Structure formats: C-alpha cells, structure tokens
Amino acid sequence: MESLTFKELCLSKDMYKAIEDLGYEEPTPIQAQSIPFILEGRDVIGQAQTGTGKTAAFGIPAIEMLNPDINKVQVIILCPTRELANQVAEELSKLSKYQKTKILPIYGGRPIERQIKALRRGVHIVVGTPGRVMDHIERKTLRLDGVEMVVLDEADEMLDMGFREDIELILDQVPENRQTILFSATMPKPILRLTKRYQRNPQMVKTVHKKLTVPLVEQFYFEVKSHLKTEVLCRLIDIYNVKSSLVFCNTKKQVDQLTETMRSRGYLVDALHGDLKQRQRDKVMSSFRDGDIETLIATDVAARGIDVENIEVVFNYDIPQDEESYIHRIGRTGRAGRGGTAFTFASGKDIRKIKSIQKHTGAKIIRKNIPSQSDVEDIRAEMLSQRVKDTIDAGHMGKYIHWVENLLEEDYASVDIGAALVKIVLADVKK
Ligand code: AMP
Questions:
Q1: Where are the beta strands (DSSP E) in 207-294?
Q2: Considering only CA atoms, which residue is closest to atom 6 of ligand 1?
Q3: pLDDT value at residue 332
Q4: Which residue out of 87, 250, 299, 350 has the highest number of ligand 1 atoms within 8 Å of its CB and is therefore the one to mutate?
Q5: Is any ligand 1 atom within 6 A of the Cβ of residue 50?
Q6: What is the mean pLDDT of the chain?
Q7: CA 227 to chain centre
C-alpha cells in the first residue's frame, strides 16, 4: 500500500500536473491509505499528525470530487486556528493550480464584509475556523445546500479549544448525505463520540508504528530556520571535512534547487530522484562510488535502491514524513565496523516530529548547536583524536614506532612529539 504511486491513484491530469509542480514524488503513507477511500465516497477517520501530508490526503480527493461548474460551496474544511486555515487554503490552491476551484479561508479577526462579498461571488471550498463558519451560516451568507463533504482537520485540537458545540451545530445543518472526513492526531473518547454520531461506517486509516530497529548511528539535530539550511549544510560539510554524504529532501523540486545551489558554490554534488532515467541514475551512482561526487542529494524514493558503502554522514535536509523513512535514511550511513553519523535539520514544528520519532523508535537524537567558524579547530582536533585512537587500535605501526623512537632518543618528550604532529596535521587541513 505504501509504495502506491500518484499515477496509481487515478487522479485527473490537472491534479497530477499540480502534484508534479509541487515536486511530491510519491504519496505519503497517510495519503496512500486515505485517498482511495475518500475518492470512493467513504467517510474516513484519519489518525495523523501534522507533517504526515494529511492536508493533501483530504485536499486532493476534495478537489478531484467537486464540480467547478456548480457555483456552490461543496466542501467545508474546519480547522482549529486561522494559521492552519491559511496553510490549508494555500496548499489547496497549489493543488488546484490547473483547475477552476475557488477556495476561501474564513476566520475571525478579518472584516466579515469582505468574506461575504467573496462568498457571494461563488466559492467551492471554504476553509475556516468553526466560530466564523457558524457566523456565516447564521447570517445566511454561507449556504449549505450544495455541501457534499465536510472535513474536520485536527479535530482533537478543535475540541480542546472549545469548538465542540459549533462543530456539532454545523454538522447538524449540512445535508445528511454528505461525506464526513475527520483527521486527528489522537483519538480520545470525545472524538470517537463525534465520529459515531456524525460519520457513516467510517474507514479508519492510520500510519502504523512498525517495530523498527534503530541502526548504530550517532544522531544529532540542529535547529535551523528554513532559509539558513543550505548555509548550515555547507558549513557542516566543510567543518567535518565530509567526503561522502547523502542529503535527503522531501521533494524533487527541493533536490534540484539544492543541487544547483551547492554546485554553484563549488561542491561536488549531484541529484538523484525519480525523474531520472535508469542510465542517468547509474552514471550518478558510479561517480558517487568513485568519489567524483562527494554529496548525493536525493528523495526517499530515489535513494531506496542505492547501495553504497562508506557514507560518512546522512543529512536530513528536510525532516522525513514519518519515523520509518527516518530509520531507512539514517541506516544508509556507516563505515567499516563503525556506525556513521546522521544530522537532521529541524525548524519550528519539526521539533515535535523529532520528539515523536524518538518516542516511537527509541532513537536518541541529540540536539547540537550550529557550529560557529571558531568551533572549527576544536571539532577537527576531536575528529583527529578519534582517528588516532582508531589507528592505534588497528595496529600495524612498526615502521612508525621506529621513527618516533628515534625522536625520543634525541630527548624530545612524547607529549611534545604528539602535539607537534597534531599542529602540523590541523594546519594542513586548513590549507
Ligand atoms: P501536512 O501534514 O499536511 O502539514 O504536510 C506536511 C508537509 O508535507 C507540507 O509541507 C506538504 O507540502 C508536504 N507534503 C505533502 N504531501 C507530500 C508528498 N506526497 N511528498 C512530499 N511532501 C509532501
């Protein structure tokens, strides 16, 4: 089910094109599971958190199912906050880029007259907070006779915020033969009561938490604002002198953009995503294996088939959609006998996702500060001591021991010899 493609979902050409433009490569698990049921006309309960792709999970079928030639509100999406209403409306606009769908966010704090005017002109999808939607229903500025689908987004949040009454009033008034979709991160009793009362034979979908084995990888995350991610990525590659890394982005578009930026900055990078022909992929992969490319920037789908050893660091440039992809991604790193390193970039809401990944997998993801240029020498010295220890452990040093013994005979102290070697090596790295 999870490897279903967007093509297999039988979407319209216009929708498929919009999804391509967004750079989504394949449906997220919650999308793969819920879209077919919603398209069939079933009521759906989706247990999914933010970041799982839930907006498109109901947004894609909602847009596909409505009739843009009928100038009536056909879909009502209820959200707990104005921010979410705006975000949802924005994502739906992108998904309906090639269609005539009219979408209107409505929430309190905005002049109601302007919303009334927009509603009068004709809207297909209303995305709003329950209070303001109720206002419009009472004023009869929002007519419900054409409503075919109601979506409750983040239902648990809406109940926590005291919207239960408004939600019930709205659901009591929309035509009974409508489809009711409910998404919620948690399923407490009040939510179950709501589904029992307002949904008909609902299909439950959720992203199952499989038992996952966390690979032996040192995992860190950095809090990085989106617009600084590229800068931080370059800095980390420089500081840790990373010669072989895999960078994961969530969309093809992001992969292409990042590849271009990094290349223009002089990094040895190439892109790997589903649009590449097999021959191109093979070429990229062999350059990566040969070390002509040091950093491979990929989507999850494209990286699935690759088999490269000795990847030093996996970067999660974008935080993965679910914990399973996180585990798959970080499992790609690891050097002979030793685990590798995974660096995850997180901003804002992503932090919650890090916590959730930790909770469900038992992985330890340690917060790290973005290193400043002045941390560089410390980090390099630390890396050097690790290499020294590894080299001692590996043995075969007879010839070198002999050289050091010569210096000792000349009355140099071993600690001075060591320090001088560190100094020389670090100075060489800087050059
Ligand atoms: P949501 O859970 O709806 O808040 O979505 C989280 C993020 O995932 C949003 O930035 C979406 O644009 C993005 N997204 C949704 N579906 C996909 C997909 N199939 N592939 C990649 N990214 C997606």
A1: 218-223, 245-248, 269-272
A2: 51
A3: 85
A4: 250
A5: yes
A6: 91
A7: 15
pTM tops 0.90, yes or no: no
CATH number attached to the domain at 217-371 = 3.40.50.300
Locate CATH 3.40.50.300 in the chain. 6-206, 217-371
| Mean pLDDT value of segment 241-258 | 94
Between the CA of 94 and the centroid of ligand 1 the distance, in Å, is: 12
Residue nearest to atom 8 of ligand 1 (CA): 53
Query: What is the pLDDT averaged over residues 46-59?
Result: 91
Determine if residue 160 is left, alpha or beta; phi over 0 gives left, psi from -120 to 50 gives alpha, anything else beta.
alpha
Sheet of 341-346: strands edge to edge?
Answer: 269-272, 295-298, 245-248, 313-316, 341-346, 218-223, 365-367
Fold of 6-206: Rossmann fold (3.40.50)
- The total number of residues written for the chain in this structure: 431
Where does residue 287 rank: exposed (0-12), middle (13-18), buried (19+ CB within 10 A)? middle
**Ligand 1 atom with least separation from CA of 24:** 20
pLDDT at 1: 43
